[in-house]
Amino acid sequence: MKLDDLPRLSLGFLPTPIDDLPTLGAELGISLSVKRDDFTGFGGGGNKVRKLEFLMADAVEKGVQVVITTGGHQSNHARMTAAAARKFGMEPILVLRGNRPDAWQGNLLLDHLLGAKIDFLDPDAYFEQVNPLMQQRADEAEAEGKKAYVIPLGGASALGAMGYVNAIKELAEQYTAMGRKAPDYIVAPLGSGGTLAGITVGCSIWWPETKVMGISVTGTAVPFDQRISAMANDAAELLELDRRFDASDLLIQDDYVGPGYSIPSDAGNAAIKRAARSEGVLLDPVYTGKAMAGIIGSVENGTIAKGSDVLFVHCGGTPALFPFSGQLTTDLES
Ligand SMILES: Cc1ncc(COP(=O)(O)O)c(C=O)c1O
Fold first, then answer.
1. 156 CA closest ligand 1 atom index
2. Who contacts 132 (Cβ-Cβ below 8 Å, separation ≥6)?
3. In DSSP terms, which residues pair with 304 in a beta bridge?
4. Average pLDDT of the chain?
5. What stretches in the chain show pLDDT beneath 70?
6. Which atom of ligand 1 is nearest the CA belonging to 198?
7. For atom 16 of ligand 1, which residue has the closest CA?
8. C-alpha span between 85 and 301 (Å, rounded)
9. 216 part of the active site
10. Measured at the alpha carbon of residue 132, what is the angle toward residues 263 and 74, in degrees to the nearest 5?
11. Domain containing 112: what range?
């Protein structure tokens, strides 16, 4: 099926703007721009709004009443899914990795305001229990006569990836209208992988010369290049494209995770302050700060050549700045 023929509900304020970062770019010796997907707007904004346009269209078409998904304590995906469920008159249920908090901060606060029912899973038990618990919640809803829809972690599926196939179409149209040639690199944070899978498929259609780079912010059992090429292949199949991808098509940087998923890193925190103080752009400690650290590190170690034209996809995440204020203000003490 063609991208434009897939059911899609409008959620985001699209197209999002493209901003140049001339000061930071000049310091690094590259031409640096940013796709402001932190401004997708709906439900506090971020990359998942694009995925949810396709996933929620599917849910609405199926007559769903309860939407269930999962993520970390500070999951932007869970927050945006809860908002989307509410917009379409559905009940959100979130299964979050982490114990019941003392302070409801950042995305957790927003989840509560959106009236999501939340199950907290101890981090050590999470991977074993998350899928059975989401299925249990779906079964309970069905037993009450309510149709349930489970969205996987991060909305990472072929259908969710369509959001970023569509984003590349949008970007290619914007660049053409501005008279700009396609960038040498497009760089995005990499969590569950749906964003990068969509970008990979989209670039193969509209920007075939552009290199796609993912900066991972988490560990993974199945290597990212395998996982994302498989998801990109499912997405290509959904679009009835004959192209296929393998692990060697993906450029993934694994050196910027730091101590672990959702644990701020020194390099990520430094990148947050550098972007804020050179350009007034706000990043977050879980995803986009680490991704910016990856761009800075990749230029410094020569992976991205000086003089390259680099487009960074700002995927949002600003609500997660606030719960990490302690780690981001250690420099105040010295
Ligand atoms: C702000 C932000 N950036 C990046 C990502 C990673 O996107 P993906 O899970 O599609 O790899 C997420 C995922 O939740 C996110 O919230």
1. 10
2. none
3. none
4. 97
5. 333-334
6. 10
7. 76
8. 44
9. no
10. 25
11. 64-146
Question: The pTM is what?
Answer: 0.97
Nearest-Å Rg of the Cα atoms of the chain is 19
Of 311, 281, 212, nearest to 39 (Cα)?
281
Find the helix or strand (DSSP H, E) in which 149 lies: strand 148-150
Whether ligand 1 lies within 6 angstroms of the CB of 258 is answered as no
Residue type, 277: R
> Are residue 109 and residue 164 in the same domain, yes or no?
no
Nearest alpha carbon, ligand 1 atom 7: 191
pLDDT of residue 1: 80
Q: Are strands 31-36 and 18-20 parallel, antiparallel or unpaired?
A: antiparallel
CA dist 232 and 234 (Å) reads 5
111-133 in b/e burial notation, b at 16+ Cβ within 10 A?
beebebebbbbeeeebeebbeeb
SS3 124: coil
Check if 262 has its Cβ closer than 6 Å to any atom of ligand 1: no
One of 10, 31, 33, 75 is an active-site residue; which one?
Answer: 75
- Which residue's structure tokens are 């396709």? 54
- Number of domain units in the chain: 2
Residues 118 and 170 in one domain: no
Give the per-residue pLDDT at 334: 60
Give the end of a domain, one of 146, 165, 184. 146
Final residue before a domain boundary, out of 115, 146, 177: 146
**C-alpha–C-alpha distance, residues 199 and 232, integer Å:** 9
Map 193-235 to HEC letters.
CHHHHHHHHHHHHHCCCCEEEEEECCCCCCCHHHHHHHHHHHH
Is 72 found in the same domain as 24?
no
Quick one: tokens of 82?
Answer: 């809860």
Quick one: which atom of ligand 1 is closest to the CA of 153?
9
d(Cα 133, Cα 129) in Å, to the nearest integer?
6
Ligand 1 in reach of 193 Cβ (< 6 A): yes
